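Sanity check record (used in CI):
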Amino acid sequence: VEAFGHHVAKIELFDLYDADNQALLWSEKKGNTSLDMMKANTVTIKDAIDAHDKIIYAHAASHFAPTGKNPESSRGHVTFVARIKQVKTKHETIVSYFVMVDCAGSEGETAFTPEFKAMVDQQTLMARRLEAGTINTGLSQLQVVFNQLKQKGELSKAIGNGLRRVLHPYINTRTYLSVLFTLSPSINNAKATESTLKFAVTAGMVKVKPVAMKGKVNWEVLVNELRIIIIIILNYHKYITKEKVIDDNNETIDDLERQIAKTREAIERSKSGLPIRPKKQQQMKIKVEQVEKAHDTGGLIQDPAATGSPRTQPVQMDDQVATALMGVLDDSIMDLMNELEGKKKRDFLFMFIPDDEFRDELKKEKELEKKQEEERAKHDQQMSQMGVQRRGGGRHRTETAEENAEAMKVAINVYNKNSQMASKINFAKTHVEKQFKQTEQEYKKLKTFHEKLKQEKQAENLNKEELTSHAVDLNILLKEQETVTEGLKQSKQIMVDYLKEDGREALIKWLQMRDLV
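Expected output for Kinesin motor domain-containing protein:
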């Protein structure tokens, strides 16, 4: 985003990734004084080469014009904001911003050399002067921002315009600040160098304690994984329960097989004429166990009076009853063994087949992944249609006008050919009254803010700390008023100089009679 304008009260913000701003004529570019940085166009950076191409594309949409010191001078402050997303874990992400500000240089009147004035018309010269005033206003706004951070430790809620409006959403107590200054060793630039050093001292005294940001948890992914874990645990519990039932049935089978073996042995002894002690009653112990209704008893005999723990009780029977019982037990045992054999052949994973609810969840997740994939493909197609293509070459700068005077002439001729806005004769006449009207409105806003501040904070009702904070607010307000006033004075003097050079003495007297100059 570029902050550019000809008046300190109307600094427009240009979205450099908007295709409309690739126009060569400045009058066809689209700016907005109230642009929201969070709604500006964004591009995705793939690698270093792609980043270079995107920067060249953005600079092609900004404002450049020749001056007495530079045949291709930046006429606005350009800001690049990189949004960086770090994946800490598969459930947690961290989003941070890296803001890079390329401030335009404060050249002032020294850039308008006699040679430069002779090569351009008066309208172009006046436009360059107004742009220089707006550039200096942006640098003053940046200095006010550092003063606020130095005195109060935070930025005030006033959004402002121009460069302050661009930086306001990103400067807080969690921000690292670094400034790179360039200085001129020439005696001709001593005043500008001294001002830069003062600004560097102010920036170095800012005490900001950054706080590490906490990652943002992706609850949707985490909840889905927990659901899957819960379903697996439930199915595993079901599997363990069934395995316990099988083990209990196997123990019952072993007990019955031992009883059968003893009974058959007694029958064989009877057939062989061996004494089986008929006077004594034959006893058989039958294990009685309580089984829940939800499970098959497997042919076990249940004791209604049982208390829940396994126990045995003697049953009296003769030989005929024992023979009949053996036949029934043989049939029951064969059926039970067949049933248990089938269960043993089942695979372990069969117990983890998801139920209907789990299948629905999996289906929804697949549909969501498919939808996200379609949206990514659509976004990539839109970015390719936006026209962000790699451009060959780059900006070739000349260090000084003396070393490349021919390049300066070529740049000025190209600029005068393509810039219809700067060639209009009545540029100053049509904007004088409008600029003073905007100035009056800006002054009224500051005055209203001052009155409101006075009403909210009465001196007799404030303690020492509140009085100190109130004094800081008044000091900041005074700095902002001085910045606006200085910019307005500079703009007014530029217009008066232009009218004098153009022979408009009568218009100057008319403005003086109305106390406008």
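The CA atoms of residues 117 and 288 lie 116 Å apart. If this sentence no longer matches the regenerated tokens, the check is flagged for review.
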